[in-house]
Write a structure and sequence with these properties.
404 residues; Rossmann fold; seven-stranded mixed β-sheet; binds S-adenosylmethionine
């Protein structure tokens, strides 16, 4: 218990200095609220496929709601929200955000650690139990998840979001360098982060209008940052009577859900498929078309053409169809040959190779105690490491509570 409280105090101190969750401004004529609100709608409607219309009249509890900048969109869709947040400053901002963008009377604001809420009072009382970007910062994730899951009614949903172990590897390598040079000194952490990773900070503030300090405190000053893998999350679901429904980014591998009767409880296959995706998340720079290309090899174009011709020849086949069997046989032979290049050595292997080389040289430079400027010069030469998205930094999951 002591460790839980120690971590809580340390997290609270960091986030009291710079609050991490202020995603839009309430200044007049500022469009940032609308932009953020649309992103939230996009996540639920197209990502998690729980559309805004579902929320109308539903009860929702949000553990670690922060400044309510995310929760307020759910409230605008008609959810009656209970916001639990241990940082009183953040909760104060949340009340202002709600009075500005939603009706405040329908909602509850509880200033408490998630560990200290009256669980018996709230057990199975909510249609939706929600927590986003919080459990990664607590000492006992499994226990915290149990609390979250216990709040949802049978037949209700748990919506849970956090960073991912593999998607977050690049950020952890950044921490490795930052701590090596700055130790525990917050000012030095800010300086080292700016010296080494200013591009990454630029990118973040462009996509979410937070201060540079808020980004640095959220990524590198915060001490407790223990990100769960997909496998961990599926284990949490299993232990708490929950069935995985969906996620964003998706973890369903190609080939899952091959019939209407695909078993949603096939967690073993889900975990195996997700590990492939987590490798793509680890090296993500630019987005999803890059991922698709990563899985394909050099010979894919010709392979696609022949397969297309053959499939078209065979579709709608009937007794009168004339088919040249010799050329059909030749086509399958050609595909057999081409498939080795098309799928046997996908570009993923080359990208992983570049990534691992860069990681190796990065670690070596830190170990050799090169100066920050020298390391920065090297980083500027990298192709994959710390470029673009630098991994996948957040994953949202939705699960269904069994028992109805
Ligand atoms: C990264 S912010 C996320 C805020 C919000 N959920 C969002 O998605 O924007 C993490 C929040 O969790 C809160 N938090 C961390 N540990 C907590 C705990 N044990 N109990 C309650 N809140 C906690 C922090 O104070 C902070 O406001």
């Amino acid at each position: 218990m002591n460790n839980i409280k120690n971590v809580e105090q340390s997290t609270l101190k960091t986030f009291k200095t710079h609050r991490p969750s202020e995603y839009f401004s309430d200044k007049e004529n500022d469009n940032s609220f609308n932009i953020h609100d649309r992103k939230v709608e996009h996540l639920y409607r197209f990502g998690l496929t729980l559309p805004p219309e579902y929320f109308n009249g539903k009860t929702l509890i949000d553990l670690g709601a922060g400044t309510g900048h995310h929760t307020v969109s759910l409230a605008r869709w008609g959810a009656k929200c209970t916001l639990v947040e241990m940082n009183d400053d953040a909760l104060m901002v949340a009340k202002n955000v709600f009075s500005e963008f939603s009706e405040i009377e329908d909602h509850n604001f509880i200033n408490s650690s998630l560990y200290d809420i009256d669980i018996e009072k709230y057990r199975e009382k909510f249609d939706i139990a929600h927590s986003r970007g919080v459990l990664t910062h607590v000492a006992d994730k499994r226990g915290a998840f149990e609390i979250l899951a216990s709040l949802a009614k049978p037949g209700g949903y748990v919506i849970y979001g956090d960073r991912n172990t593999y998607g977050g590897i690049q950020e952890m390598l950044q921490r490795l360098a930052v701590y090596k040079y700055a130790g525990n000194d917050e000012q030095q952490i800010v300086e080292a982060s700016e010296k080494l990773f200013s591009d990454d900070i630029d990118r973040s503030v462009l996509s979410v209008p937070r201060s540079r300090e808020a980004v640095i405190y959220d990524r590198w000053v915060i001490r407790q940052q223990d990100d769960p893998s997909v496998s961990d999350v599926i284990d949490f679901f299993e232990a708490n009577n929950l069935v995985y429904v969906n996620s964003w980014p998706r973890i369903d591998f190609l080939g899952r859900g091959v019939s209407t009767f695909t078993d949603p409880n096939n967690n073993k296959a889900l975990k195996q498929g997700a590990f492939l995706v987590e490798n793509l998340w680890m090296i993500l720079n630019n987005g999803e078309s890059e991922n698709i290309q990563s899985l394909e090899g050099m010979g894919i174009g010709e392979y696609k053409n022949i397969l297309g011709t053959v499939a078209n020849m065979l579709r709608n086949l009937n007794a009168d169809t004339e088919i040249d069997l010799t050329s059909l046989q030749q086509d399958f032979k050609k595909m057999k040959k081409l498939s080795i290049d098309a799928f046997g050595k996908p570009i993923l292997i080359t990208r992983l190779d570049t990534f691992f080389n860069e990681v190796e040289s990065f670690i070596e430079s830190i170990n050799d105690k090169k100066t920050l400027s020298e390391i920065r010069q090297e980083l500027d030469q990298y192709e994959i490491l710390f470029k673009g998205y630098a991994g996948v930094r957040h994953v949202d999951y939705i699960a269904y509570k069994k028992g109805l």
